[in-house]
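Section 3.1: Structural characterization of target chains.
Under the original work plan, the team committed to producing a structural model for every single-chain target entering the pipeline before any wet-lab resources were allocated. The record below documents one such target. The sequence was received from the expression subgroup and is listed exactly as submitted; it comprises 239 residues.
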Amino acid sequence: MILYPAIDLKDGQAVRLVHGDMEKSTVFNDDPAAQARAFVEAGCEWLHLVDLNGAFAGEPVNAAPVEAILRDCKVPAQLGGGIRDMGTIENWLSKGLQRVILGTVAVENPDLVREAARAFPGHVAVGIDARNGKVATKGWAEETDVMVTDLARSFEDAGVAAIIYTDILRDGAMGGPNIHATEALARAVSIPVIASGGVSSLDDLLRLKETGVISGAISGRALYDGAIDLAQALAALKG
């Protein structure tokens, strides 16, 4: 199981939110590229980047820090937030991003997801953010009536590289991930599922791994707070 250290970008800084609330942000590093380098030096194999402003704006906002991370770090990175058209997808992949994460458009324009996955095999992931089992869009600000499993299954034949499943009520709260819901989703689809939201301890990571069906986990606040030692966690997940 791959551990993805998260760098959430707001106003050019690395921050963490609680329950996706932009008004409840904590700045952890005003130099996101330096934070990314620290994660890479600890041994991470991937980076997970989120343009929080972009998720609300519907277009990239924190391009400069993302580009700095891509220049400085030689591990693959995935990025979500404000990626809603083919031009933006092509632009990011041309700059060295390994994987784009499509969230809002997966609900509003699923044909774009299919088109992108065909055009860039292995480089397109779907981000499914959920509150009480229903998908939320536009930076989690809008709740839909779409059920998580229904949306995931609709992309079974699209060729997407992964589904990143975030339980909004767990995100940033350090209360543990929703293992039951994440495992259920992973068993319902053949697409690799990455867990996000609430990962707060090494035990959480090991419990996700023990399901045998979850391909990755994203952690942010726990790494910044020191609740998870990245090098130790990477070693444990390889064991």
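Residues 20 and 140 are 7 Å apart (CA to CA).
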